[in-house]
Q: What sequence folds into this?
């Protein structure tokens, strides 16, 4: 049993002072006592928030941040970026993937994310053959999670086709490809690997309506009848047009009409939706997996936020391409994109006087926890003790009390406020630095330098 005493904490019931938190040996919170703490509790002089779930990540893409910011010969788009990404990943070894993922996960922890949903599609060797252990790459993701202490929901991706209508994969995609049968084997092996990591969960990730057929989608969700289902949907206009041409419906419309969307589902991006699709998705209980910094980086478009919120839609945030890893910045970008679109302020809130920072943070905690299928996202008994502690003495927080702390975190000071981060009740970041930063950063540096020159 571990015990802490926080100066302030953001609890499901609201803000409380001098909060005792007791954590069992399994990393789960046993007791929360506002106003008092057990004898011997470690005093942490800061403001405790639930750690933010990162519901969508492709860890290896961290290693190519900065590689695709130069203008090409024709109009640059998501699709030209994807070619750069395919070239980058074609050379990655399992060691490279583990080194890059470990640094990405360390960065997430320092930036306020305490659990990651790894949408994992880089399965095979560069020739497209499975490794001797079909779960080799999954094991490397689990290894990176174990070495950094971040919570994990592994989402092995089912990726069979190169495009709509059963198109053959292009050479850049051969490392992702599995027919349904081999995917089932991969899932079985991944389940064994994930079982070795305490608290980790597993779900499935049919990559997109481009990469799987409708029959496969029905089959996979029936075979794996429990746990999260994540799918990329409606990120790009061309994808919407191709979906209409091939399936006779827009991607989100097709999923709403043909799959039983419910709380298991997380639709990544869901950028291009009509108001009708938006209202229906909100009603379905599924989560919209928003990745505002990546969507900005790739020029995807702007989520239909106002309508979705009015329909009580659930959402969480993900760092996706990891072009920048920063939980408060993701939420800021989400709100700012909505403001630019609506030409208004404080858009992702509902009631007069409500703090936008709190509204965004609380909704993304709940949506992220649901999408990752774990009891996280709250400082409350029964939830894993994933806690981010802000520096209460930071000058940017002078005079800030209550919800304004979250407004300053989101819109002004950002991740610089984060001092201590714990997962499962164990501090992994102290004074803003991860305990293994030096070794993991060194390995990352040598890996990425070699890849850049290779
Ligand atoms: Zn993605």
A:
């Amino acid at each position: 049993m571990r015990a802490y005493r926080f100066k302030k904490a953001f609890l499901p019931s609201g803000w409380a002072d001098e909060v005792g938190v007791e954590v069992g040996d399994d990393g789960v919170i046993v007791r929360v006592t506002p106003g008092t703490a057990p004898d011997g509790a470690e005093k942490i002089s800061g403001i405790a928030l639930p750690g933010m779930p990162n519901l969508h990540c492709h860890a290896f893409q961290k290693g190519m941040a900065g590689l695709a910011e130069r203008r090409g010969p024709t109009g640059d788009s998501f699709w030209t970026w994807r070619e750069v990404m395919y070239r980058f990943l074609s050379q990655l070894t399992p060691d490279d993937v583990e080194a890059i993922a470990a640094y990405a996960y360390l960065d997430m922890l320092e930036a306020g994310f305490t659990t990651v949903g790894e949408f994992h599609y880089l399965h095979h060797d560069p020739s497209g053959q499975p490794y001797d252990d079909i779960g080799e790459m999954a094991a490397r993701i689990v290894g990176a999670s174990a070495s950094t202490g971040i919570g994990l929901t592994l989402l092995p991706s089912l990726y069979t086709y190169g495009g709509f209508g059963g198109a053959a994969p292009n050479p850049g995609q051969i490392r992702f490809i599995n027919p349904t049968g081999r995917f089932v084997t991969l899932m079985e092996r991944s389940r064994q690997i994930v079982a070795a990591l305490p608290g980790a969960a597993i779900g499935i990730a049919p990559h997109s309506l481009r990469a799987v057929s409708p029959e496969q989608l029905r089959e996979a969700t029936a075979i794996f009848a429990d746990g999260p289902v994540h799918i990329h949907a409606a990120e790009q206009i061309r994808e919407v047009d191709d979906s209409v041409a091939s399936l006779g419906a827009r991607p989100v419309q097709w999923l709403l009409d043909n799959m039983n969307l419910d709380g298991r589902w997380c639709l990544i991006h869901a950028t291009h939706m009509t108001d009708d699709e938006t209202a229906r998705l909100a009603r379905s209980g599924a989560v919209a997996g928003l990745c505002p910094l990546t969507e900005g980086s790739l020029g995807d478009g702007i989520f239909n936020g106002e309508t979705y919120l009015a329909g009580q839609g659930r959402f969480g945030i993900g760092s996706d391409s990891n072009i920048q890893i920063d939980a408060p910045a993701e939420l800021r970008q989400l709100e700012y994109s909505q403001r630019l679109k609506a030409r208004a302020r404080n858009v992702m809130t509902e009631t007069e006087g409500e703090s936008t920072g709190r509204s965004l943070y609380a909704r993304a905690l709940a949506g992220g926890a649901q999408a990752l299928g774990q009891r996280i996202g709250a400082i409350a008994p029964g939830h894993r003790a994933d806690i981010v502690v802000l520096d209460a003495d930071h000058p940017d927080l002078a005079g800030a009390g209550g919800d304004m702390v979250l407004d300053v975190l989101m819109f002004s000071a950002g991740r610089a406020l984060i001092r201590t981060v714990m997962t499962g009740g164990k501090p992994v970041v102290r004074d803003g630095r991860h305990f293994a930063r030096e070794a993991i950063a060194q390995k990352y540096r040598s890996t990425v330098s070699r890849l850049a020159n290779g």
Observations:
- The pocket of zinc ion is lined by residues 56, 58, 119, 232, 268, 320 (CB under 6 Å).
- The chain is about 35% helix and 20% strand.
- The chain has a mean pLDDT of 96.
- The longest strand covers residues 2-11.
